[in-house]
Amino acid sequence: MKYLIGLAIIGPILLLSACKSDKPADKAPADAPAAEVSAPRFDRDSAYFFVEKQVSFGPRVPNTAAHTACKDWYVERLRAYGAEVIEQSFRPTAYDGTVLQSVNIIARYNPAAPQRIVLAAHWDSRPFADSPINTERTKDPVLGADDGASGVGVLLEVARQLQAQPLQNIGIDLVFFDAEDYGDMGGNNDKSWGLGAQHWSRNLHVPANQFKYGILLDMVGAKGARFAREQVSMRFAPQVMDKVWKLAQGLGYGNYFVDEDGGAVTDDHYFVNNIAGIPMIDIINRPTTTQTGFGDYWHTHNDDMDVIDPRTLRAVGQVLLELIYKEDQ
C-alpha cells in the first residue's frame, strides 16, 4: 500500500494507494516507440507471462505458503537470467503486532561496476481488500496483479534482456521489496508502509554513493494508465524525473507519461530518498476519474489479470531498457 500526501512534506495528508496503466481512453495506446531505439526490444508478452505467473501463486502475503513459493520462483528465475542474487531476510513487526517473515530480493548485474542504478518494485500483495469503495470480502487478501506483480513483471523481463545483452560500464541492481502493503489504512505512519524499503535503506548491500539514482515501479500494468509527475519524486529527484519523462515522450509514449502534477505518494521511494539518501522517482498510475485517486480495482478483488494490458507493460519496460543502455554508453 501507499498513501497520498500533500505538500507539507510537501502538504496535507490524504490516505491512498494505487496503480493503473495505459493510455487515455480517447487515444489509441501506443505499442511501439515512434523513434528508433538503441536498446533491446522489450517483450510485452514475456512481461505479461511474468505477471500472470506471480498471480498464479495466489496472494503473496507474508507468512503464507504462496509468499514463500513465489519468492523461491523469483530467485530461481533471476539466477537463471545470470544475476547475482541476494536474499535479504528480515522480520518486521506490522502495525497490528504480526511479525512478518519477509525477504527483499536483490538481483545484481555487472556487480563490479562502481556506478549503479537501482530499479525497484514491491512483490507482496495486500492482505485485506479494504479499498474505501469495496464492500465485498473486505478481510480477504487480494491478488495484486497490478499492485505489486506488474512492476516485478517488468523488472523480470528487464533481467532477461540484461542477460542477453550484458552491460559494459553501468551496474544495475533490481530490488524486489517485501512487506510494502501490510499497513494500516487509517494510520499513515512509518510503521505501517514500505517496511521492506525501510529495511533495505538502512541495510544497503553496497554504499549509497554507488547509486546514481533509482526508479520505483508501482502499478504499471493496467489499461489506460496515466503516469503523472509524482511530487515526492519531483522534490528529491527532479532531474531523474525530467530525464525519464523526456525519454518516454521521445519514444512515443507521451500518452502514458504526462506532464501533469500527480500529487505526492508515500511509497517505497519515499523511504529510499529519506533514509538512504538515494534519489529515486516513482512511476505510478494516477488516474483522475476515480474516487481513490488510484485504479478503481485498487485494494479490491478486481485487481486480477483482467486489468493488465501488455502494451502498458511494454511502454514502461521499453523506457527502462532505453535508459539503461544509454547510461551504459
Task: Please outline the helices and strands.
Layout: E1 3-6, E2 11-13, H1 44-56, H2 65-80, E3 84-90, E4 102-109, E5 116-122, H3 145-164, E6 171-177, H4 195-202, E7 211-218, E8 227-229, H5 231-236, H6 238-250, E9 257-261, E10 264-266, H7 268-276, E11 280-284, H8 310-327
Parallel strand pairs: 5-6, 5-7, 7-11, 8-9
Antiparallel strand pairs: 1-2, 1-10, 3-4, 4-6
Please state the average pLDDT score. Answer: 90
Q: Which range does the strand content fall in? A: 15-25%
The side-by-side strand order for the widest beta sheet comes to 3-4-6-5-7-11
- Which overall shape is indicated by the principal axes computed on the Cα atoms? globular
Instruction: Give start-end ranges of low-pLDDT stretches.
Output: 6-29
**CATH fold name, please?**
Aminopeptidase
